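Lab meeting, item 3. Inverse folding demo.
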């Protein structure tokens, strides 16, 4: 790891330790508008910790896939920015692939390990939550096995409970 990356990772970890934790909602459901478009449900299990589960579908020339997965996200507020926090975490997913006739495909099931880094915002006067994140992944097997640069998404969710 080069020195710039080491400094960035160290700063993020120190920021997590010294930042006070808060959340502005308990649970929310909505859409992840990214790759792929997914349904997302997020709920806090502790002051800084949330679980997000999702399911998505993608159709492309030659193949289609459906995925389900889950992430643990550790949140930290951004001082001076009410309702805004940043988060990081990890999780896993499974992908189910189907291929068109003549398309050279691999396994019909892939398992992946996920990371996540993002921003989360809850509007003070409305039951709306927005998240913007990057989710790098590592496929353990199957089509696309190995490291994938990840994908990002803008999530728009309706807050179910505060």
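The presenter then showed the designed sequence:
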């Amino acid at each position: 790891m080069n020195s710039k990356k080491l400094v960035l990772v160290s700063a993020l970890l120190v920021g997590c330790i010294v930042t006070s934790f808060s959340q502005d909602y308990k649970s929310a459901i909505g859409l992840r508008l990214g790759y792929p478009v997914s349904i997302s449900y997020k709920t806090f299990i502790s002051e800084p910790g949330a679980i997000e589960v999702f399911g998505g579908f993608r159709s492309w020339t030659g193949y289609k896939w459906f995925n389900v997965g889950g992430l643990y996200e550790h949140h930290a507020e951004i001082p001076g920015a009410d309702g805004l926090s940043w988060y990081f975490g990890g999780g896993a997913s499974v992908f189910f692939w189907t291929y068109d006739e003549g398309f050279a495909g691999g396994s019909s099931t892939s398992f992946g390990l996920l990371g996540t880094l993002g921003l989360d915002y809850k509007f003070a006067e409305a039951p709306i939550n927005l998240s913007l994140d990057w989710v790098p992944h590592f496929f353990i097997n199957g089509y696309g096995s190995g490291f994938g640069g990840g994908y990002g998404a803008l999530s728009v969710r309706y807050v179910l409970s505060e």
